[in-house]
Each structure stands twice: as C-alpha cells, then as structure tokens.
Amino acid sequence: MSLIKRNDVLFPSLMNEIFKPDWFGGMENFNSAVPAVNIKEHETGFELELAVPGRKKEDFNIEIDDSLLTISSEVKTENETKEENYTRREFGYSSFKRSFTLPESVNEEKIDASYENGILKFTLPKKEEALPKPKRMIELS
Predict the structure, then answer these.
(1) Is residue 21 part of a domain?
(2) Is residue 137 in some structural domain?
C-alpha cells in the first residue's frame, strides 16, 4: 500500500482505497480459483500435482501443444427449489486454466495423468538422453 505524507501524518492513497483488489466484491476469493500446484523433480522425471477437489475425471481438458501443457476445467451447477409461493434457483460456475512450459528433457509421448482424492497428478518422464549416466570405473594399467 502506498502512503501519502501530509503534515507528518501518513494517509493511505485514495487510489489504493478505490481500486483495492476486493473493491465492489467478487475479488476476495480470486486466488482460490486457481488450484495450488506442486512440482517435484526426480532423477528420472518430474511430478506435477494440482489440488482440485470435488471434480470428476471428465471435468478436465488436458492438452500438449508445442511443449506447452495446458490444464483446464469448467463446472456449472444449477439447483432449483420450488415451494408454494416461491422458486429459488442457485447457479454455480467454477473454472480454471493453467499452462506449464515443459522442459526439453521431458518425453512428451510418455506423460501419464491420474486423478484421485482431489489431486490431479502428472508423471513427466525424462528423455533417455536426459537421464543421469551411470558411473564408469576406469582401471589403471
């Protein structure tokens, strides 16, 4: 937050108050719409995990194009309750899209994905030439 100093008193900038992220609502949960991601590197490859609870396998769209892994999902819900004098309709919409540039060392043809207990997990194996070489012993003559 930027502050404006007047008569030795600091005041928040008016622009910060008007355009703060949660101005007029709707932005208070902005960061929660994008799933958390863990990326781990191993000798033989990478693991990519996204926390996306409450979805089904069919809810995901996964594409690889020009070494760009794109994961997206869109879920719409609608509930309707009819009583004597009123009808209540509730709508829900949730979506996200995340893209990851794959390193050249990843074998794109052997990428595997699974979804279990709210975790979307990718196994990204390294190409044969990117794997660590075994140690070689040299004998003295």
Answers:
(1) no
(2) no
Q: How many domains does the chain have?
A: 1
| Token pair recorded at residue 11 | 């005041």
Q: State which residues form the domain around 79.
A: 37-129
Residue pLDDT, tens place only, 42-77: 999 999 999 999 899 999 999 999 999 999 999 888
User: In this structure, is residue 141 part of a structural domain?
Assistant: no
pLDDT for position 9? 47
Summary mean pLDDT of the chain: 79
Compute CA 72 distance to the chain's CA centroid, rounded to the nearest angstrom: 9
pTM: 0.64
CA atoms of 71 and 35, how far apart (whole Å): 11
For residue range 1-24, what is the model confidence (pLDDT) as tens digits? 444 445 554 444 444 444 444 444
